[in-house]
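User: Fold this; tokens only.

Assistant: Input:
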Amino acid sequence: MGRASAMTSAAQADPASAQLRNILAPAIDPCALSLNESALPPLPAVRAAMADFIGAANRYPEFLPTRLRTLVADHLEVPQENVAIGPGASGLALRLLQAAAAPGDRIVLSTPIFEGYLAFARMAGLVTVSVPLDSYGHHDLAAMAHAAQDARVVVLCRPNNPTGTLESVADVERFIGEVPTDTIVLLDEAYIEFVAATRRVDVHRLIARFPNVVVLRTFSKAYGLAGLRIGYALAAPELAELLWSLQLPFGINTGCTLAVAASYAAHAQLEQRIAHIVAERSYLSARLRAAGAYTTDSHANFVYLPAAGRSWSEIFDHSGLQVRNYPDGSVRITVDSRGSSQKVLGVVEQALNGPAGAPHGQTPPAMRGRPGPQPVGPAATRWSAPDRG
């Protein structure tokens, strides 16, 4: 046995190493439906590239992730000066708030929203102005634009998290045009790969037209690289350079660059995976609605069940499925495999068709007989007016 093989065998036999390996989450878990991770492990080409990286993990990565920046810029056909790299979209969001805003500045957020933004605002010392979604889970863009008049940052998730809803391109551009030019618009596109191409914003045109816009994207969702923490921002040169100037030296490992390069090279396989998730999303949404469970019109890799008179959180608590629970009883469920969908449908159908005395969902009176996406709020009413802070 060679020295390298002996060392590998010793590491595998070491009790501490074995214990640490046991904490790794399984790559495929039909019950893990709470974090919107990819249902499948990284593409074969990515795994091969990562294996090569491990063999050189004793070496430092680039001082700054210039190669990764070049890869992203070339793939998107934008100048490098419009791109910044970070540890996930979350890392870039926090970097932006800390660099471009001062403690005490206001940040406008929809409610509910990806919880990370609440934490980022708190860490940056910002004052949060909350604007509730409308009763169909969409942004109240008029109220957000009004609230943004004296704010430093306004965040728009498209598709929205947790409802998966999508504002039209025209509405988004109109909204940005109504926001003051010295207010930063953070457009979170973490799930954009699951959106039909015809409904995506032309980012090249957007950042050229609006120098106060920062678009955030990630390799954690559609690309299945959540564990590597890779994200990027697209913005006009001034904002992109601000984010790039705060890059931590040696902060992005070489494995991230190799994984992105391999993902881009295997684009056709990635598109097949995305198409599978989109098809499964359509199937699950249709079956949920047919069963009488109201869902928003999701364009991401998850579905959202508003409370609408019942607590889905309590129903899923003892189901064996890990879903994302919200305080009002609503849940967000990651789209995974057909097996996962069947498990979800089983829980929902049992709740809606259970024995007498069991809590049943109620169809909001205003929505009876109306096809398509259903309202988020109970009894089809709008949520409370925005808090102007």
